[in-house]
């Protein structure tokens, strides 16, 4: 559980990063999708989960970007691509379909923007995420190593 000061700092950092992303992404080409547990009646709820915080199961951030290094790996003429910048599922909800639902929603967002592919990075030691993405149809484009940074695997799904 985060103490008050840590929680405020985290919220400020997230807000700051969100504002940067909104500033540097084209209009309507950024979305933060949230999964909440269904209420007993079957409708979505944003009520408390008993801990005083909203009952968020997971989130995924999707944006349209045009990063040159990655564009060089895609079909010639590709000007940009949809990218899953981050995805997280609460530990108590893992292995229950939430991550797959978030990925499907990310694909729907990309398709709504008339895009035909979705890219993401994952750390090679995150075996459960690699398995999830593989089952969802993502393929490895390449493993990326940069000085002073952790090695990451770039994955792509096209449709």
Automatic annotation (TrEMBL):
Q: Which residues form the N-acetyltransferase domain?
A: 56-159
Q: What is a single cellular component term in the Gene Ontology annotation? A: NatA complex
Signal peptide coordinates: none
What domain of life does the native source organism fall in? Eukaryota
GO annotation terms (biological process)? mitotic sister chromatid cohesion
Q: Name one Pfam family in it.
A: Acetyltransf_1
Xref: PROSITE patterns: GNAT (PS51186)
GO MF annotations for this entry? N-acetyltransferase activity
Q: What is this protein called?
A: N-acetyltransferase domain-containing protein
Species source reads Chlorella vulgaris
